[in-house]
Backbone:
């Protein structure tokens, strides 16, 4: 690959270290109320694995590679879509008292609909 | 040089995707910006997935003849896997969220494991370092897959009892050790000049079988109330596996996103464990509740049942009420009725707050989500450290389907398995009502001294049914 120098040895470790630090700092200040949506959100973020699955499948040259690669894409896509759907539903439900009063005219029966914000 | 442009586009889109995922996660860390956070992250993901199809311009010579078939398979995989998960994620009840998160998380771990399998069967990793990282990612991914599936089965109610047997930890340790040994053998043999001495594919299969078995064995003995920690730790595992496979595929976006989730998940796991006053290894390797305190202090007082309607009326004339929800509320699907009752109290001028213990429910923060679903504004919901001093000045505390998190034995009884766990000081209020299905013990199998206290009365029955009775009783007052 002409545009990518190989990520090897210490370079990889530096990337891992900085990324781990970033994750630690982002989550460190989160209120407990958001623990579930955030876990679900980070669950969605590691769905990026589907990109790796696509790479593996598109480069498959034997039947066994095709089969396993297909499962990688199938499972990864499930991770992405499910993670997004669940997180979006959860986050749409959080509201303050004022917002709650504004929406009180629409009784919250059945499925809560994501509140459209401008 | 024609394939330089697709590579440039892939590189740039992955960079943008990694940024959007991180920025989205950052926005998700505050309730105000959170809904836009998931949208931002979603855009990043979509861009990355679409750009992945540009990989077709750079495939290896060996894969060229299979390209159209591979593209077809990729599209089918994305549509079927994504479609099914999207549909289930939109349809599932809010109370079933913990198992859905566990399931999607397992899928991610499985995908990481499958990528490793493609690399291994294709004999692609170059050199010992890459091979070791591939195998490590495969092990963690496979454990996350099978472990998450067991967690899902437990939360779904398919597996009810934690499975424990004598010498379990030794047995689990041996299986894990065998997995590592097979991995080491794989590395060793591929470094030999002619590595056809043993059947590599067979050995790879054994490796994956053992890794999957490890995940199952690790999760089987863990009980329901420890599930928040388990889901959280497998989330971190999957992130780690994705990061490692990202290194193998030389894809920095996977490395960064995976490792960010790995670290975030680890921190979340530690927070959960801390809220239970236990270490993570204690949760994973100790059979909680097994070594019950044999002699419990003589129980003073008795259980005093009370009619739900009477309890409701009492609360209507109180001035300060705190509600402590637990897993029982989720089981009874009582959150809508609860908020209806609370709104009724509020119109009568009662000051009502919610107190949520960090490990109430089966997933970190599950109660917050459950109450949010019913429409409870999050500024009425208070966490342990913010509300614990208020209990002493509160007239009535209503505990709904929670048990161990309000057990005063955690403060006083050194022999108790939950001694030292921070609890909600419900017992300090003037009056406590406990809504409970029956006279059973909590998850930890400990008698709850609170229930026997002089200021405590029990409302037996289904939480939702009891709340309906309370609403009717208070409404009846208004009419009279």
Residues:
């Amino acid at each position: 690959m002409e545009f990518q120098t190989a990520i090897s040895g210490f370079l990889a470790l530096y990337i891992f270290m900085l990324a781990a630090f970033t994750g630690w700092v982002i989550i460190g200040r989160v209120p407990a109320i958001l623990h579930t949506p955030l876990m679900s959100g980070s669950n969605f973020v590691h769905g990026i694995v589907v990109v790796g699955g696509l790479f593996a499948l598109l480069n498959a040259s034997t039947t066994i590679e095709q089969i396993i690669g297909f499962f990688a894409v199938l499972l990864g896509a499930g991770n992405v879509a499910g993670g997004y759907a669940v997180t979006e539903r959860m986050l749409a439900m959080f509201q303050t008292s004022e917002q709650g009063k504004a929406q009180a005219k629409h009784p919250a029966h059945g499925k809560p609909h994501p509140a459209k914000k401008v | 040089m024609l394939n330089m442009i697709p590579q440039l586009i892939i590189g740039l889109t992955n960079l943008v995707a990694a940024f959007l995922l991180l920025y989205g996660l950052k926005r998700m860390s505050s309730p105000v910006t959170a809904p836009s956070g998931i949208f931002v992250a979603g855009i990043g993901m979509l861009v990355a997935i679409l750009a992945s199809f540009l990989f077709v311009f750079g495939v290896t010579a060996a894969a060229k003849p299979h390209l159209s078939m591979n593209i077809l398979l990729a599209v089918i995989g994305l549509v079927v896997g994504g479609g099914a998960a999207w549909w289930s994620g939109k349809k599932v009840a809010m109370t079933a969220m913990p198992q859905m998160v566990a399931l999607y998380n397992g899928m991610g771990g499985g995908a990481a494991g499958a990528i490793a399998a493609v690399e291994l069967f294709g004999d692609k990793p170059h050199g010992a370092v890459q091979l070791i990282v591939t195998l490590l990612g495969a092990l963690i991914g496979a454990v996350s897959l099978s472990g998450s599936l067991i967690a899902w089965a437990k939360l779904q109610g398919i597996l009810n009892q934690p499975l424990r047997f004598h010498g379990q930890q030794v047995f689990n340790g041996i299986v894990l050790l065998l997995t590592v040994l097979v991995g080491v053998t794989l590395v060793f043999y591929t470094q030999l000049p002619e590595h056809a001495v043993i059947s590599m594919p067979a050995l790879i299969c054994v490796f994956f079988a053992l890794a999957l078995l490890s995940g199952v064995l690790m999760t089987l003995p863990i009980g329901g109330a420890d599930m928040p920690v388990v889901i959280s730790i497998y989330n971190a595992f999957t992130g780690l596996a994705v990061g490692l496979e990202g290194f193998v595929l030389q894809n920095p976006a996977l490395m960064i996103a995976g490792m960010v989730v790995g670290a975030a998940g680890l921190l979340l796991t530690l927070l959960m464990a801390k809220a239970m006053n236990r270490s993570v290894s204690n949760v994973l390797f100790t059979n909680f509740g097994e070594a019950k305190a044999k002699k419990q202090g003589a129980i003073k007082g008795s259980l005093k049942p009370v009619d739900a309607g009477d309890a409701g009326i009492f609360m209507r004339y109180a001035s300060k009420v705190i509600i402590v929800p637990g897993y029982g509320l989720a089981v009874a699907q009582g959150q809508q009725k609860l908020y209806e009752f609370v709104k009724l109290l509020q119109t009568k001028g009662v000051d009502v707050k919610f107190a949520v213990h960090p490990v109430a429910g089966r997933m970190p923060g599950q109660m917050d989500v459950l109450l949010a679903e019913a429409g409870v504004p999050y500024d009425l919901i208070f966490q342990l450290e913010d509300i614990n001093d208020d209990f002493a000045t509160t007239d009535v505390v209503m505990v709904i389907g929670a048990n161990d998190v309000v057990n005063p034995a955690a403060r006083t009884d050194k022999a108790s398995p939950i001694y030292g766990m921070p609890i909600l000081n419900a017992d300090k209020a003037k009056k406590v009502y406990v809504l409970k299905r029956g006279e059973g013990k909590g998850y930890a199998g400990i008698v709850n001294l609170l229930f026997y206290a002089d200021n405590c009365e029990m409302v037996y029955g289904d939480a939702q049914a009891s709340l309906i009775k309370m609403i009717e009783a208070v409404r009846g007052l208004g009419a009279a």
